[in-house]
Amino acid sequence: MSAIDVPPPACMRDPELEMLADSAGRFFERNAPPERVARWREDGQVERDFWREAGAAGLLGVAIPAEYGGGGGDFRHDVVLVEQVAKHNVDGFALSLHNVIILPYILAHGTEDQKRRWLPMLCSGERVSAIAMSEPGAGSDLQSVRTTAVRDGDGYRINGAKTFISNGQIADLIVVVAKTDPSAGGKGVSLLIVDTTEVEGFRRGAKLDKIGQDAQDTSELFFDDVWVPADHLLGGVEGRGFAQLMAELPRERLIIAVGSVQTMDKAIAATIDYVRERKAFGQAVIEFQNTQFALADAKAKATVAKVFVGDCIERQMAGTLDLTTAAIAKLRVTETEWEVLDVCLQLHGGYGYINDYPIARMWRGARVQRLYGGTSEIMKLLIARSL
């Protein structure tokens, strides 16, 4: 039962999408029960077998054309799946990264040969993807990356270190942001595909010990003279990487906002259930006016966020979602998510600080939403440029 009483945008009211939601929900209930997800949290990563199971169920690459092994859908289908991942607490399963960020890079910017080579194996779960952007000395400022890809014969030799890489321990098809011309600034950035099963010199660092998202194997990656053929340069032309990254960022930031709305919905619903059962001073906590006002404010904020995100989904489907609007969505919705979850945790009292309660994991996991995909400060900078 949703705690946010907002109908989906018109473009999402489709029987096919309802069928997908039902099918995905049943898959997650069957294949990602709480005890299995708990093991992922203990291990710090999702097992590879689950990715193959998701591929066999048709959940990977749902927006990729059928000719490349995908489901032939569109962005709406990925929205449904991201919502179902959140609804069923499938911690650590980076479906949005794989489906909404990395596969579209290859579809939109890859050569025909690259699309036919890599998309089918990503859609089946044979390969798990990651994108290696951030470095120890370069986060949001991607023009400052120091990883290089120097021409060597009929290929490129990659050297550098990356950090904060989701799927870092299990990914075997990695989009690497590197400088093919270090003297050219942003115009010297290129994207190269590294299949870790085919190269030497690639190393995975340890999983990073994070505040939250315990089941996500965020890691450091090292490229020591990793050689890849020239046809692993995404799009086949050097210097297009920065433009390729910028072209896909609005969709990436929107899908982060979609996840934030779903998390707020879950948090408010869980908190309502808790304060109805929990008693203090002889009455249910929900009966105190402070509790009612706090939850009313949380619901109002989450409702406004969901309406705006719905409008952004409509814009994305119409091809009119611009960089500024996506930045506004990412900024306001993730900041609102943090405010709402903090209130929900407070209403749980001391139990909100205990990891056995879902609100504690949601609260810890939500903090990074204001960091990845561009920090809130970077979003403000982008919005300010539109003034």
Overall description:
With 387 residues, this protein is of the alpha+beta class. It folds into three domains: 10-127, Butyryl-Coa Dehydrogenase, subunit A, domain 1; 130-239, Butyryl-CoA Dehydrogenase, subunit A, domain 2; 243-384, Butyryl-CoA Dehydrogenase, subunit A, domain 3. The chain contains eleven helices and nine strands. The chain has helices at 15-31, 34-43, 48-56, 75-87, 95-109, 112-124, 241-277, 289-318, 323-347, 358-366, 376-384, and strands at 129-132, 148-152, 155-165, 173-179, 189-195, 202-207, 219-229, 279-280, 283-284. A four-stranded antiparallel β-sheet has the order 2-3-7-6, with no helix packed on it. The protein has a three-stranded mixed β-sheet with strand order 1-4-5, with helices on one face. It has a two-stranded antiparallel ribbon with strand order 8-9. Helix 4 (75-87) packs parallel to helix 7 (241-277), helix 7 (241-277) runs parallel beside helix 9 (323-347) and helix 7 runs antiparallel to helix 10 (358-366). The longest helix has 37 residues, at 241-277.
